[in-house]
């Protein structure tokens, strides 16, 4: 970790802590542009994200130099804009935010410093609120604050995003879907379920136009809408939507698993090693697990008389964890599926399917 030095602040200039915005007393010795109120917040910021982006902050936060001509000034502005719009940095910040929040609120202490950094890059990277390219970032920051229970901050970003979308004539169906989903989540956090249902219904419509009704990217809208019906004790509607989400993910994982088995067969013939792959990034895998386990917990806690629905969820999680190389979790869910199939007398065919999954997992976990 870089050393931090006490500040000698010029009279009349106020420097704020990167994490809490309290008066700063120290500065990072490496980049010399990031300030902290003390050692605790500097260490928190360093561990969460600052270590990865320390040197990248220098050109973003350094004052513009004096130019001798208009040509030099235009060139300098162009160079600055390219640095400011560094998509790699913005994606890194937002990816880390998404992953931390999906994994749970117990990560809150690690998440908040990254939120601060994410906002910094959003501010310096945007050419203004009307910049449609920054809408997705506004959406994400809004929903992250909502996930931390900071509704006022969340609403500020989401309303900025909504204004930008409404002003633009060049928004895709996917962007409209993202707008309505995040507004739906915001109103769910505010317990305004009527408004949340309106936005999530629109999310499903626009996502269906963009990706299709049976796509995993559309399934999130179904899932959140089902959660509202579950909260409102409208169990028939909730059950229908939870079933649709389960079926979409089961179909997706079956397709990925078939590709994996085909590659395994080719590996035996060609002697070539194929890597297992869910075709999802780390955050998407975490979100899939959260959605599927949430529905599974609801199914197992209610007097549901359809064990087949639980079996589908368990097998989907088995395939997902197996392709993520988490053999212990894959075997755990497979054992639960097999026990339920035998207990409910679901037939030899179902039992054989599950036992084949267990055999494939065991052969890789303990190769001969």
UniProtKB/TrEMBL annotation:
The keyword Transport does not apply. The keyword Acyltransferase does not apply. Keywords: Metal-binding, Zinc, Zinc-finger. One of its GO terms (cellular component) is sperm flagellum. Pfam families: zf-MYND. Residues 17-54 form the MYND-type domain. GO terms for molecular function: zinc ion binding. GO terms for biological process: sperm axoneme assembly. InterPro entries: TPR-like_helical_dom_sf, Zinc_finger_MYND_domain, Znf_MYND. This is Zinc finger MYND-type containing 12. It comes from Otolemur garnettii. The lineage of its organism: Eukaryota, Metazoa, Chordata, Craniata, Vertebrata.
């Amino acid at each position: 970790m870089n050393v931090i030095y006490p500040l000698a602040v010029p009279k009349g200039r106020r420097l704020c802590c990167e994490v809490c915005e309290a008066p700063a007393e120290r500065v990072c010795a490496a980049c010399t542009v990031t300030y902290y109120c003390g050692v605790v917040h500097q260490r928190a910021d360093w561990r969460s994200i600052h270590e990865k982006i320390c040197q990248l902050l220098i050109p973003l936060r350094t004052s513009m130099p004096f130019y001798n001509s208009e040509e030099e000034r235009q060139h300098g502005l162009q160079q600055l804009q390219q640095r400011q719009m560094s998509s790699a940095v913005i994606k890194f910040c937002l990816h880390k935010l998404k992953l931390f929040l999906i994994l749970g609120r117990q990560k809150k202490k690690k998440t908040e410093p990254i939120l601060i950094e994410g906002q910094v890059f959003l501010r310096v990277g945007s050419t203004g609120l009307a910049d449609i390219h920054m809408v997705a970032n506004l959406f994400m920051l809004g929903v992250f604050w909502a996930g931390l229970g900071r509704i006022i901050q969340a609403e500020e970003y989401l309303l900025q995003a909504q204004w930008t979308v409404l002003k633009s004539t060049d928004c895709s169906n996917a962007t409209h879907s993202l707008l309505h989903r995040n507004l739906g989540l915001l109103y769910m956090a505010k317990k305004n379920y009527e408004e949340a249902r309106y936005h999530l219904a629109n999310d499903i419509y626009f996502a269906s136009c963009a990706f299709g009704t049976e796509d995993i990217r559309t399934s999130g809208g179904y899932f959140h809408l089902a959660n509202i019906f579950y909260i409102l004790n409208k169990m028939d509607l909730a059950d229908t939507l939870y079933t649709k989400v389960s079926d979409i993910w089961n179909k997706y994982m079956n397709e990925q698993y078939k590709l994996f088995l085909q590659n395994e067969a080719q590996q035996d013939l060609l002697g070539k090693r194929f890597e297992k792959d869910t075709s999802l990034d780390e955050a998407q895998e975490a979100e899939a697990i959260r959605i599927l386990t949430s529905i599974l917990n609801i199914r197992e806690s209610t007097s549901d008389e359809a064990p087949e629905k639980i079996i589908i969820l368990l097998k989907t999680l088995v395939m997902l964890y197996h392709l993520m190389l988490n053999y212990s979790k894959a075997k755990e869910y497979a054992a639960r599926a097999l026990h339920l199939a035998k207990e409910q007398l679901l037939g030899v065919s179902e039992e054989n399917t599950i036992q084949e999954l267990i055999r494939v997992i065991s052969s890789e976990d303990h190769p001969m």
